[in-house]
Amino acid sequence: MLSSLRTRSFVALALLPAVLIFVVFAIIPIIWSMYYGFFDWKGLGAAKFIGFKNYEMMLQDPIFWRALKNNLILVVSAIVGQVPIALLLALLLLKNSFFNRIIRSAVFMPMVLSTVVVGLIWGYIYNPQIGLLNQVLETIGLESWTRAWLDDPKINMFAVSIPINWANIGPYLIIFIAALQNISSEVNDAAKIDGAVGSKKLFYVTLPMIWDMVVVAIVLCISGSLKAFDHVIVMTGGGPAQSTELLATYMYNNTFTVYRYGYGSAVSTMIILISALLIGLNYIITKRRS
Amino acid sequence: MQASTKMQAAGEKPAAWKKPVGFALKVLLLIYAIVTLYPLYWLVISAFKTNQEFFNRPYAWPLQWQIDNITRAWDLGNMGRAMINSAIVTIVALVLTVVIGTLAAYALSRFKFKLNPLLKGMFLLGMLIPIHSTLVPLFIFMNKVGILDTYWALIMPYTAFELPIAIFLGIAYLTSIPRDVEEAAMIDGNGWWGVFGRIIFPLCLPVISTVSILAFLRFWNDFSFALVFINTQALKTLPLSLSLFSDGFGTDYALTMGAMFIAVIPTIVIYLIFQEQIMKGMVAGSVKG
Amino acid sequence: MKKRLTLVVTLITLLSLLVAACGGSNNTNTGGSNKPAEGGKQEKVKLTIWHNFAGDDLRAQAVRGLIDEYKKNNPNVELDAQAIPVDGYRQRLSTVAAGNEMPDVFFVYAGSQSQEFFDAGLLQPITPLTEKYPDWKGNFMEGAFDRFTFEPNQIYSAPIGLSATSFLYYNKDLFEQYNVKVPTTWAEMLTAIKTFNDNKITPIALGNKAPWVAQSTILGSLADRVTGTEWFLKAAKGEASFQDQVFVDALGKFKELVDNKAFQDGANSIDNTQAEQYFIQGKAAMMISGAWTLTNLAASATEEQVAPIEVTTIPAIEGGAGQGGTISGGPGAGFALSKNTTGAAKDAALELIYAISGPDGQKKIAESNSMIMYNMDLEQSNVSPLYLKAFNVVKEATITPVYDAYLSAEAAESINNGLQEIMMGGKPEDVAKKLQDAQARSTQ
């Protein structure tokens, strides 16, 4: 298709601004930061080149592994939670009725609120003394279930993941609605004539049509979950005793709180590597399915 | 279009009557919506309470609606100025992201060339970058080139970090649009730029609306870049005003809620506008398609 | 390292011509361009000051007021004063430090932060001020400059606060109602805890979500009573180990509190403000907290709520090496001077520091219900009654070190997390080991 000069110059010019801005303001800084990852540097003063020592220390630090495990909990909960729920809601709310519009806006609302508000309200829901959740459990006679939800290291990561998922369904809903609306009415009519209705239509017509969007959504889930930061910082600060530490909070603390800038940079490089690995896996799996 | 509307009209009411499942589904959706709207409700009632009331009756309706938190937060946080700054930065970055991103997505989705997969991979990498790790390099770099402490110090990084999502959603969306539309337009004598401007960009409105909402929220709520890359008080953006009332030893919850209440209003308005746009895009799309 | 970095920078600079073109019109020059003042004879001096007194509390208002006053009195100084939210202050300062772009005058915490900045060569002493105003220096309390003296005979900042971190606040009414003696010994403390628990009152309110709280308010004083001050100072220097039995015992005392259910459920997931409110609402009988609670309560509690609150020190521990009646505390933060500030700007910057930390400044800050390390007579009518109670407690008490003012940042983080771990059932021995490892690694 790239035959004529005009076409070629169009493609080059169309890509130029995006590539330029992206390389200068995202790629170079991140490479720069990867470079810091090979130094023993406090973020101030002199730096000492130490090769892969930061990575060695990282792999030996149990907190790193815990953070990774917590992140993986988030990734899994996002993929099995956010994507199917958002898809289901998108199918239910596709028609542009008044009722649907209200529900759609409501689903998106937590995204509109800043993470601080979301973190604060869920902090109150989980509050051990005056929390809504414990009050509700007491009212319905499940007193033995009440607990300090964000305190108990056995469950607090799950407690944290619920608000994160809940707050992030909105964008996926929108993405799916936009994709579903793009399925032309002819395709739908054709499906109807062929007798494809209900779940049959969903799996043989609708899903394949928007499969690219589903893959993108999963990629967004993976990268978003591995970068997750704000909600956890507000709700638990990664605690207690680092039990809800995530890779991003772990990186942040090392970089800005305890002056291990080089180490923090190595952690952020690791975050990128792990995300890339998971996304590669995702592409392999989803390709096979389609 | 007309046919489908008729079908809906004919099908909907009796179905809801006949099928209790449909009705139950609606009730469930309604409950879900109420649960989801609750934080917003909580934010609003909390913004109008005194600190004592906030702690003593955290879920109750305010005894007396106090406007005090809002006005004080507005003054102390210099929120009028901050809101103008946020608006400038957000709008410019948004326009850049959408135009540049859609253009790149179009080029990457329609044309095969050697660098294509490499570029896609590079943009994918951009989605994985934890932004905090770029703070120091970006600071040093922007300081050297002299754009630190200007609107550009926020606009450029915002755009750069939002481009990957814009491009990826754009590519995924464009692959579902048949090519014959463009080919017809080419025959009509439009160049590629014409095709992009007259056909593709309008066709992409639903996905552009999606990207716009996501980007708007990200830019509007960003704290880290805004904190580090702007010095001048007069250029400070809104999120910095929101954290003013917490000093590490204690938090003035009433003022914080007041400030958040102010900050959330524009985001709701913007969301409602773009939501309409997605729907309009659909209508336009289905007429042409 | 430097050379290679420069290379990278140059490369990027080349790549960014486009950007520079975009930003050209908006360029602001941060370097001091000294234009003569309009109609004045003096040279205009440009100065930047960064602090985190951004909020609405009395202390923040007082400090901002002092800066404004300096501005008014020095028309020849073009002062750019930046109030940065506390939540982002550390991050902001760390980032500019990495880029070696420090403001002329900035607010630093005593302890690891100022130490790191000094080690990196970013600070210069403010000693000239003490030569100019000898009385001023003499009026500070003993130990005020301990954490700002990085080399002999040079001070790098003057504290504008005394951070007394470990008052025992208690609700007199609850103690009377349940007929409990205000604890002065560890045994009495345990009795009080039991009695309140039996009556479904939380003995001690604690909001340890930000994990420095338990360390700063409880551990410092508690451990000092067990180990004595000398041992801690030795351990901080690496001459004793945190794995010594005496420190494990000190952590054991904290664990005893936890095991006896002294704190309310979920103390690790609520913040300090929420704990204060829980206490002030009469749901808890005691709270161990710092002077900042005075400021917070002054802003958010009613008079009736504050009336039954009394202040004392935490109880003595029988058989420990340290005394009772002491309070952990030390110089709070102060303003420091950047190494890059020279000439007329330096003189103006020093005067600015004096305007905030000098006698008048200290007085204004004290009157905002904050503790200071500067000796002066306080007009009682200008402060809250609760503040006065606390002020009198401090006057009588010996000040002992706060842990995180002496530990490295990494070690402080370790003990903060360690205390949370103990609250979740962890073993003192393990926590002690981690603390020792962190301190050893970061000071080697």
Automatic annotation (TrEMBL), chain A:
Its main location: membrane. The chain crosses the membrane at residues 12-35, 72-94, 106-125, 155-181, 202-226, 261-285. Keywords: Cell membrane, Membrane, Transmembrane, Transmembrane helix, Transport. The keyword Transmembrane applies. It is found in: Cell membrane. GO terms for biological process: transmembrane transport. Belongs to the binding-protein-dependent transport system permease family. This is Sugar ABC transporter permease.
UniProtKB/TrEMBL annotation, chain B:
CDD domains: TM_PBP2 (cd06261). Keywords: Cell membrane, Membrane, Transmembrane, Transmembrane helix, Transport. It is a multi-pass membrane protein. It is found in: Cell membrane. The chain crosses the membrane at residues 21-44, 82-109, 121-142, 154-174, 195-217, 253-274. Residues 83-274 form the ABC transmembrane type-1 domain. InterPro entries: MetI-like, MetI-like_sf. GO terms for cellular component: plasma membrane. PROSITE patterns: ABC_TM1 (PS50928). Its main location: membrane. Pfam families: BPD_transp_1. Coiled coil: none annotated. GO terms for biological process: transmembrane transport. Belongs to the binding-protein-dependent transport system permease family. This is Carbohydrate ABC transporter permease. It comes from Paenibacillus pinisoli.
From TrEMBL, chain C:
Residues 1-20 form the signal peptide. It comes from the Bacteria. The keyword Membrane applies. This is Extracellular solute-binding protein. InterPro entries: Bact_solute-bd_prot1, SBP. Keywords: Cell membrane, Lipoprotein, Membrane, Palmitate, Signal. Coiled coil: none annotated. The keyword Membrane applies.
